[in-house]
Amino acid sequence: MTIIFVDHQILVNVASYLPSKPAESDEYKDFLDMVRQKVDELEPGGRQVVIMYYFENLEAGCIAAELGLDERIVHQLLRESLKKLKASLAEAVKARWPDRCGNLKLCPICGHPERQAIENIIRAKKPGDNWGTVNKKLKRRIGRTFNPPTIMTNHLKYHDKE
After folding, report:
1. Which of 6, 21, 46, 67 is the right S-S partner for 42, CB 3.0 to 4.6 Å?
2. Are residues 82 and 152 in the same domain?
């Protein structure tokens, strides 16, 4: 089984501690069990799509045809499920390996005292603006910039409150 979706910063940090021959490691097996458990906790539709896409390596079009769904719905279920899965895995990993995760700063925007103002500035980005323009606005209003710009886009994608 190949897990290709685990890219959250905490999970990468934990993965760096896993042995080079993971199949022989109890710690790796515990990690896989944790991933399986968190996948099982997803809502039924999202769980089925995640399993088919990431564990059975089926394409979205094939999943849509097999489940009788529109391909856009499959992509939407994947996005929503992965957002939930990454959040639950991050918490589980922090609980399981606190010594490896204690000093990580997951998202500098989430921990910033002016988070709401930062989010408002990022959301106000117009199609013609580049991220340098957004950083200039942040520097003027907040006194801080975020480089690389993926910090801002990832915050909105993964950490933004719904």
Report:
1. 46
2. no
Q: Say how far apart CA 84 and CA 126 lie, in whole Å.
A: 28
Cα separation, 17 vs 22, whole angstroms: 10
pLDDT tens column, 5-57: 444 444 444 444 444 455 566 777 777 788 888 888 999 999 999 889 888 88
Question: 14 with 63, same domain?
Answer: yes
Tell me the pLDDT tens digit for each residue of 60-96: 999 999 999 999 999 999 988 888 888 787 777 777 7
What 3 state SS string does 87-127 have?
HHHHHHHHHHCHHHHCCCCCCCCCCCCCHHHHHHHHHCCCC
pTM to 2 decimals? 0.52
